[in-house]
Amino acid sequence: MLTLGIETSCDDTAAAVVEGGSVALSSIVSSQDAIHGRYGGIVPELASRRHIEMIIPVVDEALGRAGVSMKDIGGIAVTNGPGLVGSILVGLSFAKAASIAAGIPFTGVGHITAHPMAAFLREKGDTAPPPPFPFVALIASGGHTTLLLQEGFTGYRILGQTRDDAAGEAFDKAAKLLGLGYPGGAVIDRLARTGDKTAFAFTRPYLTRGSLDFSFSGIKTAAINVVRGMGGVIPETAVCDIAASFQEAVVDVLVQKAVWAIEATGAKALACAGGVACNSRLRERLASAAQEAGVSLFVPHPRYCSDNGAMIAALGYHQLKKGVYGTASMNAVPAWDGL
Ligand code: KG4
Ligand code: ZN
Predict the structure, then answer these.
(1) In this predicted structure, what is the pLDDT of residue 275?
(2) Across the chain, which distance is largest between two alpha carbons, in Å?
(3) Do residues 287 and 297 touch, judged by C-beta distance below 8 A?
(4) CA angle, 145 then 119 then 264, to 5°
(5) In this structure, which residue's CA is closest to atom 7 in ligand 1?
(6) Residue 104 and residue 171: Cα distance in Å, rounded?
(7) Which ligand is nearest to the CA of 278?
(8) 218 CA → ligand 1 middle, Å
(9) Residue 166 alpha carbon to ligand 1 centre in Å
(10) Closest residue to atom 13 of ligand 1, CA basis
(11) What is the torsional sign of CA 148, 150, 151, 155?
(12) Residue 208 needs a FRET pair 20 to 30 A away by CA distance; which of 19, 102, 227, 252 works?
């Protein structure tokens, strides 16, 4: 079965066609970074207006790249939360209308729990094995930092969550502070490569030993203090050193908590997803941590780590198979209990 996945929960308009919940035939993402960049953060009203302009062209392109038409699609998966209500409503309304027009069911998908499904996505012909259940999923994005024990495609247990800022949010705030624009995670990643990660001592907030919750607001405040201490004028080399030191502190915590989650659950595999999973240092450190822990690691291609429609289709496929269908009265959910 072909699933059309639609994602508009934040600032990316995304659509994808996925076969059997794992073979990505296409995945199109229209980024709004250029629109929100100059405001240093997402402006919800601008985000929803842009989604309205982009949703039809993006879906058309996803169908076109996959070489199919709506007649070939068996079901539609659409993010219905959590996220910005005005943004979600654009994708959700489109999905409802397309489902009625094509005479096929749609299903509402949770954005956070869709992220780990990226670990199952493959290009056609790629025979890499999927992660075995149960596996630990580390989801690190702009809005969430969560550890799950993924027990099945649609079944999971929450192991830990952030108590304040998300990892990506901390990256973005540090980048803004260093004058690197928004969103800044990828820029910090790039500059950190030439920086000295031991130049600045950022404390690692592990909370209590063994705790699987996260807290990143302290590292962010420490970065603010370092920049203030320099009187606001930061030499080029210091920017790279701060980026490297800051990144290493965040990565240390993410990796340590993932290892503790493996120890606590006895899981044999680890998957990582969310925009921060694009981070090169995190990918490197997870690879050595997984090897040391004797578990297999599944870190998807960066295009499936950051927000995309394919992960929505991947989870939606399993919901549709179970007959979990959305109705015309389904609403956008800004935040929900659990995930
Ligand atoms: O998953 P995502 O695309 O959207 C949300 O659901 O939030 O994640 C976006 C976040 C942003 O905070 C961005 O700065 C961060 O992912 N990010 C990175 C990198 N690429 C994107 N953070 C660190 N290193 C990167 N290479
Ligand atoms: Zn996301």
Answers:
(1) 96
(2) 62
(3) yes
(4) 55
(5) 142
(6) 41
(7) 1
(8) 19
(9) 10
(10) 185
(11) positive
(12) 227
Q: What would the DSSP string read from start to end of 104-122?
A: --EEEEEHHHHGGGGGG-B
- The domain ranges of the chain are 2-121+304-321, 135-299
Ligand 1 atom closest to Cα of residue 169: 12
Q: CA-to-CA distance for 112 and 89, rounded, in angstroms?
A: 17
CA of 115 to the centre of ligand 2 (A): 7
Cα(83) to ligand 2 centroid in Å equals 9
CATH number of the structural domain 135-299: 3.30.420.40
Which CATH superfamily hosts domain 2-121+304-321?
A: ATPase, nucleotide binding domain (3.30.420.40)
24-56 per-position pLDDT tens digit:
999 999 999 999 988 988 999 999 999 999 999
pLDDT of residue 338: 67
180 token code pair:
């690197």
Amino acid at 226: V
Distance CA 2, CA 335 (A): 29
